[in-house]
Design goal:
CATH architecture of the largest domain: Beta Barrel
Subcellular location: Cell outer membrane
InterPro entries: Beta-barrel_TonB_sf, CarboxyPept-like_regulatory, OMP_b-brl_3, Plug_dom, Plug_dom_sf
Helix content: under 10%
Distance between the termini: 34 Å
Protein name: TonB-dependent receptor family protein
Keywords: Cell outer membrane, Membrane, Receptor, Signal
Strand content: over 45%
Radius of gyration: 30 Å
CATH class of the largest domain: Mainly Beta
């Protein structure tokens, strides 16, 4: 069974490795000249066939890898797997010298020279006998492992199953280890100092990063400058979280559990059953934890009429709760070329948060003239359901396919809580009765996505792609606030602080791409057209925002590449992208949840459009590779947040469109195998950001140079011990403040971050460490010990200075956490799985990866 899996994977790897230089039957031979002289016609009528047998048992060897290579440079011409009776054949071959390579795990590799000439156009190679190599098989089974990080010019893939430091955590912990990605303490994600579009399994989702367990993630894909095939949303590209979907044959799975300091627990497992035409999988995880947080806001106010005043807020919070993640589904192989996939995700959680916020106010002489202590106690629960149906049809022509996917997501959430605010004397003694407020909220989201994609190879190196996508999202939220009467204790509805709203978003898109190559020069051009429709209302105020049907957006993309000697490549690409304001940024509602830092939406916000150019160089050196990129982004109408004073001590945070924004920089990524047992991946991003904003009160300019560095180290020691160290450093940088993820009374979310024209975030660093020990004969039992933020340095510091105020903002969450995790893998493999004749469809589905078709 393992031999057959290896053969299938080997053919796929060969096609991907040599595909760029592949010579399809009927194509040009090496040197670019056809037989008979320049311009002559080249016959493609050669036929080679034979049978593969086991040298000892004389039995046919099925699903072995047979590849035909050019005799001149060993580049790939074509390949196949042997049939059930060991037969193989290659047709429509051009004249020339070839090498027949036979490869199958557990056997010695066979090479045989073959010549196709006018005299040998039809050749029977007879019975080829493979010699077993049991020693080699054992060595491969013990040492084979997938690379933790693979990268290309168009996509970087981070394989989470090799990331020890995030075991038992969430998607937020995973992304902290991904090169090129920066995650702050609130889970806001940035790539090259801008917000990417976040997807789960290639689709939009209402899940937040903290609602996806790390143990359910297969890989993270980062596409910094996507083609027209992908959604145009997102300034810095697409970040796709691929969930686990085991495709191993037979019955296999894993169970795991862990415990961490300060009451943190996790557990779960997965099971996969593959037999005949059905592949069934199920995954379940539960995470429970407690966390503490603290923060201060130290502000100096410069009123235009009056003396300078000072305020200080000190926060102390505690939170805790749990969430559960379940996923089940199956792939049904209808026949060799048609596959139906169905899956269902269910996520649920309950959390509680308590916070003490003490505010102190001082006059120009810094004498205290007021204090209050506000205690917040709230609970939050959510439920999320995602149903997915996918269909794939493979045509007889290689690499020609049609896919259709439907995604239905339904989520609901609820909050209950309240504020208790007690006025204090300068000495800290309570004065009068406290002000008590209670609040309840509920929200419901329906998110539907349908997409279809068609891929058609044209000629030897051409490819045409086309597709369509429709997305519809409905959101409803109700947030009610009640004031408690100090005498009767009755709760009285507060219409000023309460709100309710609904909105509907629709996005329709079509795209077309064409790719081709002329010798070592490759090109791809595409165009995506998107139509966006938005409508909203505030029922309690009888306000309706009529459907806003903007003009269709056109988003072109162009890719140019040049392959050079010694596995080097240059690439230049361009794409146009968009970032549309979400409802929370548009709604003209003021959020008073923090009286000194109020927030308000802006219904006049415009979408921001980005033109992105990237020039890259890559070099592959065996197990090592290097990628360097220069990039430039120019954004029109960048959505930015600003803070302006209202009253003596209060700031109003609102959103505006910037007048000018540009960002440019260089990113260097290298993966090096220092020695056979030590791998290093280093990533450095150096960038300059320039931002100008004009308001009716003041002009703001914020610009500066910054850099981000990450280093991932993996060392394998004797006795099956592995150690990982992940280190990150972020220099001071123009502030990115979360703007889209949280609404009045609504839940946190992936959201998007908006640039701030005021202030900078101070630099910070962090180091994570993990050690794993594998036990038992086949390393099926693993025990790992992790320590996150070893030096306890992860925190958030923001400095802001304007003509109206100067503010230092500090926040810290629990980040140094020690965890112990145990996992056990089990499995029984069934060779009958592979008796089914499903060559092309089987090879495609054995790839084991998630193919995104947006």
């Amino acid at each position: 069974m393992k031999k057959r899996i290896a053969a299938i994977l080997f053919v796929l790897l060969s096609i991907y490795t040599f595909g760029a230089n592949a010579q399809q039957p009927g194509g040009m031979p090496p040197g670019g000249q056809r037989p008979g002289g320049p311009g002559g016609a080249m016959p493609t009528i050669g036929h080679i066939y034979g049978k593969l047998l086991d040298a000892k048992t004389k039995q046919p060897v099925e699903y072995a890898s047979i590849t035909l290579l050019r005799g001149k440079d060993s580049s790939l011409v074509t390949g196949m797997l042997t049939k059930g009776n060991g037969d193989f054949n290659f047709e429509n071959l051009p004249f020339g010298q070839f090498i027949l390579r036979v490869n199958f795990m557990g056997y010695k590799t066979m090479f045989r020279k073959v010549a196709v000439t006018p005299q040998t156009m039809d050749q029977d190679l007879g019975n080829l006998r493979l010699e077993p190599n049991v020693k080699a098989l054992a060595e491969v089974e013990v040492t084979g492992q997938r690379s933790a990080f693979t990268m290309g010019i168009d996509k970087k893939v981070f394989n989470v199953d090799r990331n020890l430091v995030s075991l038992g955590g969430t998607a937020t912990d995973v992304l902290k280890s991904v090169p090129s990605v920066n995650v702050d303490i609130d889970g806001n994600v940035q790539v090259r100092n801008a917000s990417p579009t976040l997807f789960v399994d290639g689709k939009p989702s209402t899940l937040t990063l903290d609602q996806i367990p790390a143990d359910a993630i297969e890989s993270v894909e980062l596409i910094t400058n996507p083609s027209a095939r992908y959604d145009a949303e997102g300034m810095s590209g697409i970040l796709n979280i691929v969930l686990k979907k085991n495709r191993k044959a037979g019955i296999n799975g894993m169970i795991n559990g862990g415990i961490g300091t300060n009451d943190k627990y996790n557990g779960g497992g997965n099971l996969n059953i593959r037999q005949g035409k059905v592949n069934f999988f199920i995954n379940y995880n539960i995470n429970a934890n407690r966390n503490w947080g603290e923060g201060t806001t130290n502000r100096t106010n410069f009123p235009t009429n009056g003396d300078t005043t000072y305020s200080l807020q000190v926060s102390d919070s505690r939170s805790g709760g749990n969430f559960q993640f379940g996923r089940a589904g199956f792939d049904f192989y209808l026949d060799n070329r048609n596959t139906l996939s169905i899956s269902q995700n269910i996520v649920a959680g309950n959390f509680r948060n308590k916070e003490n916020l003490v505010s102190t106010f001082r006059d120009s002489d810094k004498a205290i003239y007021g204090m209050n202590d506000r205690f917040t106690d709230g609970s939050f629960e959510f439920r999320n359901y995602t149903s997915q149906i996918g269909f794939k049809h493979m045509f007889a022509q290689p690499n020609k396919e049609w896919t259709a996917d439907f995604n239905y997501n339904r989520s609901k959430n609820g909050r209950d809580g309240g504020f208790k605010t007690q006025q204090l004397t300068p000495a800290g003694t309570p004065v009068g009765n406290p002000l008590i407020q209670t609040n309840t909220s509920s929200g419901n989201t329906t998110f539907i996505t349908f997409q279809t994609d068609f891929v058609n190879p044209i000629g030897e190196k051409g490819k045409f792609e086309a597709g369509a996508k429709a997305t519809v999202r409905d959101y409803t939220s109700i947030y009610d606030v009640f004031d408690q009467d100090g005498v009767s204790g009755e709760n009285i509805f507060n219409p000023v602080l309460s709100n309710d709203y609904k909105y509907n978003e629709q996005l329709y898109a079509v795209y077309a791409n064409y790719a081709g190559a002329i010798k070592n020069f490759g090109y791809q051009a595409g165009l995506r057209v998107e139509q966006y429709i938005y409508a909203g209302e505030i029922p309690s105020e009888n306000q309706k925002f009529e459907p806003n049907k903007s003009q269709p957006g056109f988003f072109p993309s162009v890719y140019l590449s040049q392959k050079m000697n010694k596995d080097q490549e240059l690439q230049l690409n361009y794409s146009r992208r968009v970032n549309r304001p979400n409802f929370f940024q548009l709604i003209p509602y003021r959020d008073y949840s923090d009286p000194l830092n109020q927030r308000e939406g802006n219904p006049n916000l415009k979408p921001e459009y980005t033109n992105s150019i990237e020039f890259s160089y890559s070099k592959v050196m065996g197990a090592n590779n290097f990628l360097a990129s220069l990039y430039y982004r120019n954004t029109n109408n960048l959505i930015s947040s600003i803070s302006e004073p209202i009253g003596t001590d209060t700031l109003l945070n609102r959103y505006v469109n910037a007048n000018k924004n540009a960002a440019y920089g260089a990113e260097l990524t290298g993966k090096v195998q220092v020695i056979k047992t030590w791998d290093l991946t280093a990533n450095v991003n150096l960038f300059q950001t320039e931002l100008d904003v004009q308001t009716d009160k003041e002009s703001y300019t914020n610009r500066g140079f910054a850099w981000l560095a990450k280093l991932n180290s993996e060392t394998r020691f004797p006795f099956n011990i592995t150690m990982q160290i992940n280190a990150t450093y972020q220099s001071p940088v123009i502030a990115l403040q979360g703007g889209g993820g949280r609404g009045p009374g609504g839940p946190g979310g992936m959201g998007m971050a908006s640039s701030s024209a005021q202030g900078k975030i101070k630099g910070f660093s962090g180091v994570d460490l993990a050690v794993k020990k594998d036990f038992l004969k086949n390393k099926t039992l693993s025990v790992s010990l992790q320590l996150s933020d070893v030096f306890n340095t992860r925190e958030y510091n923001l400095d802001q200075t304007t003509m109206f105020f100067a503010q230092d903002y500090y926040r810290k969450r629990e980040s140094r956490i020690l965890k112990l995790n145990v996992s056990y893998r089990f499995g029984k493999f069934d060779s009958q799985i592979f008796k089914r004749k499903n060559t092309k469809g089987e090879r495609e589905n054995m790839n084991g990866g998630m193919e995104m078709g947006f």
